Amino acid sequence: MIYGNIKNTEEYKFLNIDLQKCFEYIKNNDLKNLEKGTYEICGNDLFVNIVEYETTTEDKRFWEAHKNYLDLHFMLDGEELINVNFIDNMKQIEFVEKDDFLSLEGNKKSSILLEEGDFLICYPNDAHMTAIKVSDSKKIKKAIFKVKI
Predict the structure, then answer these.
(1) pTM of the model
(2) CB distance 15 to 135 below 8 Å
(3) What is the phi-psi region of residue 83: left when phi exceeds 0, alpha when psi lies from -120 to 50, beta otherwise?
C-alpha cells in the first residue's frame, strides 16, 4: 500500500501509467462536485466511484481486498480511518469474482487517517476496512479509483 497526498504526486512518478492517469484525473476534474456514481476513464480498465457515507465504528464495518483491481482511495471531503493489514495475516472467507470482492476476517495491523487531499493505494495483498470514524461519525465524500491489474 502507498499513502500520500495529492500535492506530492511528483514523488510517485515510478508508479504505473494507470495510477498516473488517476492523479491527472484528480488534478483536471472537479471531483467534489460530481454526483455519486461510477465514471469511466478507460472503460473497465480504469474508472472512479464517487461515494458518500457516514463514518462509523469498527464493529459495523468489514474487511475487504481485491484480486483483479487495485484501489486508489482519494478523500474529497471529511476524514476517515482505514484499518489495514496484509491478506496473509487474515482469514480469507469468500471471493466473489463478479464484484472482485474478497471478504476477510482478522485484526488490524495499523490505521491510516485520510483527510482532504490524502490518498491510499491498496494492492491485492492489502486488506482494508474503510469508513471508520475518527472521533465522531461524519459524512464524507471520497473518490475510489479502480485500476485493473
Answers:
(1) 0.96
(2) no
(3) beta
Query: What SS3 class is residue 45?
Result: coil
C-alpha distances in Å from residue 87, one per residue of 7, 25, 35, 40, 105: 30, 29, 32, 28, 9
pLDDT of the residue at 69: 97
Q: Report the C-alpha gap between 64 and 105 in whole angstroms.
A: 9
Residues of the chain with pLDDT under 70: none
Q: What is the pLDDT of residues 44-73, one digit of tens each?
A: 999 999 999 999 999 999 999 999 999 999
How many distinct structural domains can be found in the chain?
1
Domain ranges, residue 88: 2-148
Average predicted confidence (pLDDT) for the chain: 97
Which residues lie closer than 8 Å to 8 by C-beta, 6 or more apart?
none
**Pair 140, 78: CB distance under 8 Å:** yes
For residue 96, give the CATH number of its domain: 2.60.120.370
